[in-house]
Amino acid sequence: MTSEEIYSQLQPIITTYLPEDVSINEINIESDLTRELNINSAHLVDIILDIEDAFNIEFKNDDIEKLRTVNDAVSLIKQKTL
Fold first, then answer.
1. What is the CATH number of the domain that holds 22?
2. What is the distance, to the nearest Å, from the Cα of residue 35 to the centroid of all Cα atoms in its chain?
3. Angle subtended by helix axes 41-55 and 70-80, to nearest 10
4. What percent of the chain has pLDDT over 70?
5. Does residue 11 surpass a pLDDT of 90?
6. How many domains does the chain fold into?
7. I want to staple 22 with a disulfide (CB 3.0 to 4.6 A). Which of 2, 18, 47, 59 is the partner?
8. Which long-range contacts (CB under 8 A, 24 or more apart) does 25-29 make?
9. How many angstroms separate the CA atoms of 26 and 44, rounded?
10. Which 3 state secondary structure label does DSSP give 15?
């Protein structure tokens, strides 16, 4: 699975949890999930659970701590789906 394919599947998951004041157009590969997209910690957990379900993978606590940007998520998913 390519990074672009992962990103295209990841984007709708993230979009679900965007606050009303953040537009889908603001999501890009370098977006910081909490700082730029204003995703709170509870929704970040929901995103992680949705990613695990969508890609049939499991994140470890160490992985979750590394998850800051959309690109971090893409990289982790890519590693886990190889």
1. 1.10.1200.10
2. 13
3. 30
4. 100
5. yes
6. 1
7. 18
8. 27/70, 28/70, 29/69, 29/70, 29/71, 29/74
9. 17
10. helix
* Residue 78 and residue 3 in contact, taking contact as beta carbons nearer than 8 Å: yes
Cβ pair 5, 77 in contact under 8 A = no
- Phi and psi at residue 32, to the nearest 5°: -80, 125
pLDDT score, position 82: 84
Please provide the average confidence, as pLDDT, over all residues in the chain: 94
Q: What is the pLDDT of residues 52-66, one digit of tens each?
A: 999 999 999 998 888
Range of the domain at 33: 3-81
Structure tokens at 2: 């390519």
Residues near 14 by Cβ (< 8 Å), separated by ≥ 6?
Answer: 27, 33, 37, 39, 47, 70
Report how far Cα 80 is from the mean position of its chain's Cα atoms. Answer: 14
